[in-house]
Amino acid sequence: MRITSDRRKLGLSEPTLEKLKLLKKKSSATWKIYRSNRMGMIGLVMLLAFVFMSVFAGQIIWVLAHVAGWPSAYGPFDEIAPVGGGLPPTEDHWLGTDIRGNDILARTIYGSRVSLLVGFVATVVSMGVGCAVGLFSGFWGGWRDEALMRITDVFLVIPWLCLMIVLATLMPGGPSVMKVVFVIGITGWSWTARMVRAQVISTKNRTFVERARASGAGDYYIVKKHIFPNVFPLVFANGILTVAMSILSESYLSFIGLGPDPTKIVTWGNMLEDAMTGHAFINGLYLWFLIPGLLIVFIVLAFTMIGYALDDIFNPKLRKR
Amino acid sequence: MIIRKVLYSLITFALVIVINFVLFRLMPGNPVNMVVPSDPRIPSEYKEHLVEEFGLNDPMWLQFLIYVKSMLFLQFGDSFSDPGTPAADIVLSNLKWSLILAGSSSVLMIVIGTTIGIVSAWKRGSLFDSGSLAFTLFFYAMPTFWFSMMLIAVFATDLRWFPDSGALEFGTSLEWTWASFVDLIRHLILPVASLTIGTIAAFALIMRSSLIDVMTEDYITTARAKGLRERDVLRYHAVPNAMLPMVALVALTIAFVVGGVFQTEIVFSYPGVGYLTIKATWELNYPILQAAFYLIAVMVIIANFIADLVLMMLDPRISME
């Protein structure tokens, strides 16, 4: 009851309070189920570690500099070794240096920022387009539905990696993070659109929607009150899996040189590109190649595990098993 | 129903042409660059001739009609890097390598993935179940290009068991001899391994959940009640029905496999369409890029259509809808 009185002090009205209480009860119930899912929890812990790493990248390097007794914290773009070839790990550069003469450890830690950012923003773009298309086509039906679905089909059928490469090559302007986000987002929405549409259609014909319509509810009200709450959990679970795919796509685009400029922005993908062009293996610099790749694997794994766990929770049919 | 499928495929095909037109003609930037190499040594009469041939000075609607015609007759212009050779010929001649690579790994990933799925569904909750899930998901989360490079590092550079690049020994071509066949297989093993292992998870997961789903059906209880052994229930009643979602999945993974082929080919310098396409993005060889994109899209549409037909034959419920 203490919480209730706190909220009263904040000046919240009685109905809002009720709603908040209900939300808290509902989300804590979901959390309880989620917590019992071992795979989901491992994924969540991994994800939190990555978020920590990207948010506090500068501080982590600073702490490491103090622990290791470096004269100063290395930045991801500081040239500290001769440019042209990688140098093997030393006491100061734990993972060695790369062809740009930068410290690989620093670049790896900073690289998490763009990878996560691209993953999230591209997902928001593709979820936005997918939800809009799915919602309209499911809600409208008829020829508009047919037209939107045929367009969705094309994006479903064309191998998305292929389309991404062509788009990234043909789009005007130099390589940039924005371009990568756009290219990944615009190619990855078709699955979401399909799923949202199916869910909207199945919800639309349920009796409680008919009842709302009979009592005079408008389209906007029905979408907001009845359809959205039914579609959202699925979109959320799907979105988490899309983040994983987007991070993989970014790494690949950067790897083949269509990503952001490696002298200005560091991602794990363009580090791997550097490692390939710098012949990391022939020069015996295995860590240069191993660490960024492994981090991609683990971040993708984290999102995939969370995604599957959420899928389990939001599909009660699966949970029974 | 079949007529509708044919119609849908044709619409998708038409939309692919429209997307191609938008990408290669309407993108900001001079469309003349798309058909004329930017090499200054090329005589201006030749440039004029090309501009005339592709109708780049004509009004937009006429340009589009000319474009549709050139797509239907596979006229993409000559490759920029080897003048006099039509881009379509180059792409088609590289296609066989991609088909060999994609075909052999598809068969392997379906067989292995399905088997793992069946065993994990059968022994649900066992060590094999959770172990195979962790194992396949780990490789699923791995960027295919990175996994390919790891394989090269271990099995080609270090152990020297397999060659690290190409489809055949340098300077030889495919012949109907035993030696040539062995050479082909030796070059194929690493790319196929990286493609297959990375995609097993998709099939294993779907097969597992589909089989678990089927096991709760009434006819399985009936089969058990008849006194069939568990093994026979599985083999004759559960697995055939659980295979249906797999066929649908095969169609959807085509896009995924093409993405994987693109990634492995570039790392192994395997002379397929993916390698060609990515080289084309580096050299801004637009006719090749366009030909590859278009031909891949067309082939995937055809493959999807065939998969749909197979699914309809196997599951009469679909054509009743």
Describe the structure in brief.
The complex is a heterodimer of chains A (321) and B (321). By secondary structure, chain A is mainly α.
**Helical coverage of chain A, percent range:** over 70%
What's the structural domain tally of chain B? 2
Helix content of chain B: over 70%
Strand content of chain A: under 5%
User: What's the CATH class label of the largest domain in chain B?
Assistant: Mainly Alpha
Write down the Rg of chain A.
24 Å
What is the first-to-last residue Cα distance of chain A? 38 Å
Q: Please identify which CATH superfamily of the largest domain in chain B we are dealing with.
A: MetI-like
Largest sheet of chain A: none
Structure, explained:
The complex is a heterodimer of chains A (321) and B (321). With 321 residues, chain A is an all-alpha fold. Chain A has 14 helices and no strands. In chain A, helix 3 packs across helix 5 (104-140), helix 5 packs parallel to helix 13 (286-314) and helix 9 (190-204) runs antiparallel to helix 11. The longest helix of chain A has 37 residues, at 104-140. The mean pLDDT of chain A is 82. With 321 residues, chain B is mainly alpha-helical. Chain B folds into 2 domains: 2-72; 93-320, MetI-like (MetI-like fold). Chain B is built from 13 helices and no strands. Chain B has helices at residues 2-26, 32-35, 44-53, 60-72, 87-122, 127-140, 144-158, 178-215, 218-225, 230-268, 273-283, 286-314, 316-320. In chain B, helix 5 (87-122) packs across helix 8 (178-215), helix 7 crosses helix 8 and helix 10 (230-268) packs antiparallel against helix 12 (286-314). The model of chain B has no long low-confidence stretch (mean pLDDT 82).
